[in-house]
Amino acid sequence: MNFMNSSFFKKYLLPGFVFQSVVIAGGYGTGRELVEFFLNYGPLGGFLGMLLFTTVIWSVLLAVTFEFSRKFRAYDYRTFFMKLLGPGWFVFEVIYFILLLLVLGVIGSAAGALLKYNFGLPYIVGVMIMLAAIGFLTFKGSGLIEKFLSSWSLLLYTVYGLLLVFALVKFGPEIQKNFASAPVLPGWALGGFKYALYNLGIIPAVLFCIHHIETRKEAISAGLLGGLIGILPGVFFYISVVSHYPDVLPEEVPAYYVFQKLGAPFLLILFLIVLFGTLIETGTGFIHAVNERIRSALEARGKKLPPWLRPVVALILLLIGLAISTFGLVNLIAKGYGSISWGFLVVYIIPLMTLGIYKIIRNR
Fold it and tell me: What pTM did the predictor assign?
């Protein structure tokens, strides 16, 4: 039996791989975020923040979210927040759409720039490839999306694993020295908390793959594993980048810096290909969540979502996101990511960990 088609994989591992697929391009794909939120507090301080705060918070929130989703059969964010917040559910959608358009603007620009500056292709080629890939995946629906996101995640794990091995072989003594001698700077715990909060808004975008889960044990286990699956490639990269601490701190794209220092061009090319795929993954995950929300709303009225509407929704959202980036608003609005994160804290995390847990326990 194909392992990825097995019941064990779909119940316990698939949700984590889908979460990791959506979070990486919006999170730590370039390595800049890992430097900003973790390495700035020293190699050991950042490592502690990553493991003791980010991983734990991700795992706990994923576990409770998956159980709430399973309990109320809420496999899209509209149904989920109607069950959690009642009439106030639309507040989440407003915040989600702000984040969605920002992320689409960023990944649209990144897709064009990535192929232009590294492979010499026209900017529009990268944008069109991403548009076509996301449109195709959203047209095919959840089944193909689950397979693509999980398969690409395994490829990503391979590339990040190779990066770690090469770094340990070439820079092992430097990594050990920096972990042992660099001071732990104040604020490492807050850095781990901020990074966890910064990315929690995407969790409701992965609910479409929770329908495989049948029991509370499976939901909680999948959530706890999901936090580990989501952070592990980041851990691989973090250990590798510690080899060049503190020189790497001001680098705009630390990932390129480390790969170039390794002197392994083939590995850099593999990384760039994988990184481009993560842009498609993140865009697909965000947009598919909107399609599932529309499908749910139509089914509540006794109607069905036409297959052709899925790529049309994807195209419209991507074009709006690209328009935002064209007008130069991405950098300006991106400074508001912190405000959006606090919004998710108020309308998602606090209600889930209070009212949500109460409803789970009450609804036996």
Answer: 0.89
